[in-house]
Amino acid sequence: MTETRPAATVLLLRDGGAGLEVFMGRRHPLTGFAGDALVFPGGRIDDADRAFARRGVCARVAGEDETATAFRVGALRETFEESGVLLARTNGRPAGAACAPARGGRAFAEFLEGEGLVLATDLLVPFAHWITPEGLFPNRFDTMFFLAAAPAGQVAAHDGEELVDSCWIAPARA
Questions:
Q1: CA distance 100 to 155
Q2: Helix segments in 22-91, DSSP class H
Q3: Does the predicted model carry a pTM greater than 0.85?
Q4: pLDDT tens-digit map of 98-107
């Protein structure tokens, strides 16, 4: 049995002109997992996500341990890296659009601390849990899916590296 890797993804939602829309990006065609596929922002949970969760510098969700918090941290980090959308608070208020240009620079934790931001892990709503079946792909992932409202004032856009195109699309059309 192939070992699974922890991962998380966020379905960013907004009210569009014709109803509910979800943000999706097209993965780079040469990506090892799901190349050229239309996906939600997300990826692997790493050691820095676990360390961040242990430090307790993000919103806590009642009843969740550090492992569950690390999934939330990783989901928000990946969403920020791939779409520029950041679910965080500064002085108790939602972070604004000024945060988006900072992606791709400092380490995520350093960026948050330097800007006085607290990751809003409590804004994620658990939606699904999926483990890649054996034999489907070379790598297997143990993935948590979360729902989140796209924050007002922030513009979602693909990063040009992992995601090479993006769109807001009605879930039924996707």
A1: 8
A2: 47-55, 66-83
A3: yes
A4: 554 454 556 8
